[in-house]
Amino acid sequence: IFEVLGISLFECYDMTEKLYNEVNEIVSEINNFLNEESSDERKQI
């Protein structure tokens, strides 16, 4: 039972890590986009 639990926990952790990395990439892309937008606005002023 513990072996199965350990494997499933490891798989859960692995999937969570992958999800976290994907979310991080998306967040940094959004931040870059927002930064570009705000710098464009500053140029117009």
Characterize the biggest β-sheet: none
Calculate the terminal CA-CA distance, rounded to whole Å: 65 Å
Which parts are unreliable, with pLDDT below 50 for 5 consecutive residues or more? none
Helix/strand order: H
- The total of helices stands at 1
Structural class: mainly alpha
Bin the strand percentage: under 5%
* Radius of gyration of CA atoms, rounded to a whole number: 19 Å
- The chain-level mean pLDDT equals 83
Q: What is the β-strand count?
A: 0
> Which percent range fits the helix content?
over 70%
Describe, in plain words, how this protein is organized in 3D.
It is built from one helix and no strands. It has 45 residues and is mainly α. The model has no long low-confidence stretch (mean pLDDT 83).
Task: List strands and helices in order, with pairings.
Layout: H1 2-44
Short structural description:
This protein has one helix at residues 2-44. With 45 residues, the chain is mainly α.
Keywords, separated by commas or semicolons:
45 residues, mainly alpha
